Amino acid sequence: MSYSILLFDLDDTLLDFGANETNSLNRLFQQYGYTLSDEWLQVYHSVNKQLWADYENGKIRLDVVLNTRFSETLLKLEKVVDGAEWEHQYRELLGSGSQLLIDGALEVCQRLSASNRLFIITNGITHTQIKRLKQAGLYDFFEDIFDSQSIGFQKPSKHFFDHVISRIKDFDRTEALVIGDSLNTDIKGGLQSGMDTCWVNRRLQKSPADIQSTYTITSLVELFDICLPKQ
User: Fold this and answer.
1) Which residue spans adopt a coiled-coil conformation according to this UniProt entry (predicted)?
2) How far apart are CA 179 and CA 8, in angstroms?
3) Are residues 108 and 196 located together in one domain of the fold?
4) 20 to 30 Å CA-CA from 160: which of 56, 71, 129, 191?
5) What CATH number should be reported for the domain holding residue 29?
6) Which of 96, 123, 156 is the last residue of a domain?
7) Average pLDDT along the chain
8) Residue 26 in this model has a pLDDT that exceeds 80
9) Maximum distance among all alpha carbons in the chain?
10) CB contact at 8 A, 207 and 213
11) How many structural domains is the chain composed of?
């Protein structure tokens, strides 16, 4: 079947967040006179992952995640820094960096936007995500952008998807498709909300038995067969 409403994840679905993140972190540490070694990068990812988990579980606020992840990382490395200042600089670098498109992203957004309604659903920060979309040349293809900072909940929370559904005019779950690279956020969240899903599985990962996406693709261009209206 075809779908009139397409809900796209952003990071690592349309934009290569991993490459942008690594580049921005390197530039950030250099600004403050440090070299970001592999060891330091691992410490950052460990701290960041735990803080986001605590936020998702309702233990801390989002601003605590953002304003302490760098100070906690550097503290483990026996350095004392202003976490809020580092976060501000990081956001600037992340938003102004090279927004690398996932292969096929521009073509897919151009073609599908001509016949389908496109939306962004992202676990990200409002200002940063909008800026990145604009710099990547994708912003104008989307009818609206829904982000976890504005909503107050993250994917796969039902509250996140309920908010999205309530704000899209003439929304019909049977005509909506959630598209994303993460089984635990995009696919799980979409399925829990009664929508079909499309897992962008570029790394050929094995799907667990408890999360079965409606479709699985390895390249974005495969969406044409799924989403374009049939002649």
Assistant:
1) none
2) 5
3) yes
4) 71
5) 1.10.150.240
6) 96
7) 92
8) yes
9) 63
10) yes
11) 2
CATH number (domain holding residue 179)? 3.40.50.1000
Tokens for 111? 């073609």
Question: In the prediction, which pLDDT does 20 show?
Answer: 87
Same domain, 90 and 139: no
pLDDT at 225: 93
Question: How many other C-beta atoms are found inside a 10 Å radius of the C-beta of residue 45?
Answer: 13
Residue type, 14: L
CB 7 within 8 A of CB 177: yes
* pLDDT tens digit sequence for 130-153: 989 998 999 999 999 999 999 999
Range of the domain at 83: 18-96
92 and 115 assigned to the same domain: no
Q: What is the pLDDT of residues 60-94, one digit of tens each?
A: 888 999 999 999 999 999 999 999 999 999 988 88
Taking Cα atoms as reference points, which of 161, 225, 165 lies closest to residue 2? Answer: 225
Q: Is the pLDDT assigned to residue 182 strictly greater than 90?
A: yes
Catalytic residue set: 9
Q: What are phi and psi of 61, to 5 degrees?
A: -85, 165
Q: What is the pLDDT of residue 195?
A: 97
